[in-house]
Write a structure and sequence with these properties.
single chain
């Protein structure tokens, strides 16, 4: 099922990389004899990605299929225009060349609070979480940044010395994203009637790869897309794994710990792909995912499983702190709060409180070959 495969792969690719199409291994005439099937597969990929518009490059005008002849190792390429999905495959130029990539890394701290509407029973938990994160994700795409600790203009090249031959290729950059926190403030949403409060808190590792002539703006865009892919993938996995249970205490504080990110090399390139491990899982639990989706034959030691590590102590501290804050709010409600927005908030009967804490402490950026 190419559509399902494309959806799974796009969520595990770092920022800056996208799905261009598919490849097939067969004889010299495979593009002619299997054209109908290949066009159907390309259409399925397009439909699947079109349902995830913010995770991939929608400006691409075509999908590609590369046919590899195992006897001669010759590669033939065809393209399908997205504007006319019923058209025949057209010849496309295919060239092999050495490509060097800039690796861009960042650490993002999440601390988002949002109310859950009274009718949230009709909305999945995954949808509730992503709606809570949307203001932050939207702000990231408009953010400025520090490149290796220095302010850089958005139109400036990521590598300032790129004009000199042999310089600025294959470098690793640390970016600090600076975004408008006023746009992500949740206070105004808490004025509306709510049955619960969701808090998303923690640190996540962000990763992107860019061509050597990329600008700072392209780096920010790639990191923003990587963040969205990463959060969507791990929140979807977490919510799919939950067993619905009714809490015994209607005012209970519930702690969830979504999967953490791990990386594996897309050998023989400089690139890495992602997977996500649940608490208690080890690097060996990712090997099958990398085999099924990317065809990688890896060992446990090949998986970088320290870019994010769970912090149980911090997670429970966040949970207790949030519960204490809610107790304070209830006391204000019974005593009559003077602050108007708090009064409006506390006038709502909070039936349950859900707190999502992804307590992921970043050990630190590592070079692609370091474990």
């Amino acid at each position: 099922m190419p559509g399902r495969h494309a959806k799974q792969v796009i969520q595990l690719l770092p920022g800056g990389l996208d799905i261009l199409g598919l490849f097939v291994v067969g004889g010299a005439d495979v593009l002619k004899t299997q054209e109908a099937q290949l066009r159907t597969a390309l259409n399925a990929i397009y439909r699947a990605l079109d349902k995830l518009p913010q995770l991939h490059d929608r400006e691409a005008e075509e999908r590609l299929v590369a046919a590899v002849d195992p006897r001669t190792n010759k590669v033939t390429c065809r393209s399908l225009e997205l504007s006319n999905l019923t058209a025949s495959l057209r010849p496309a130029e295919w060239r092999f060349q050495e490509v060097r990539w800039h690796r861009v890394q960042s650490e993002l701290f999440l601390d988002v609070t949002a109310g859950v509407a009274p009718l949230a029973a009709e909305t999945t938990m995954f949808r509730q979480i992503m709606m809570s994160l949307e203001p932050l994700l939207a702000s990231l795409s408009d953010s400025t940044c520090l490149v290796d600790g220095r302010m850089a203009a958005s139109d400036a090249p990521l590598a300032a010395d790129e004009g000199r031959p042999g310089k600025g290729a294959g470098r690793t950059f640390a970016l600090d994203l600076l975004y408008d926190t006023a746009k992500t403030a949740p206070a105004e949403k808490l004025l509306e009637p709510a049955d619960a409060v969701i808090r998303v808190s923690g640190r996540v590792h962000c990763l992107a790869y860019l061509h050597t002539k990329a600008t700072v703006a392209e780096a920010v865009s790639a990191l923003s897309r990587d963040t969205r892919r990463s959060l969507l993938a791990r929140c979807q996995m977490h919510c799919d794994s939950l067993v619905e249970e009714q809490p015994s205490d209607e005012s209970a504080t519930v702690l969830h710990e979504p999967p953490r990110r791990v990386l594996a090399p897309l050998a023989p390139s400089q690139l890495h792909a992602s997977d996500y491990l649940f608490p208690g899982d080890t690097a060996a639990d990712s090997l099958q995912t990398f085999q099924d989706l990317f065809g990688l034959e890896l060992q446990s030691e090949d998986v970088m499983d320290t870019v994010e590590t769970p912090s149980e102590e911090r997670a429970h501290s966040e949970c207790s702190s949030a519960a204490g804050a809610l107790d304070d709010l209830r006391e204000l409600q019974s005593g009559g709060a003077r602050c108007s927005w708090l009064h409006l908030l506390l006038a709502v009967a909070i039936a349950a409180v859900g707190i999502l804490v992804s307590s992921l402490a970043l050990i630190g950026p590592r070079s692609p070959g370091q474990h």
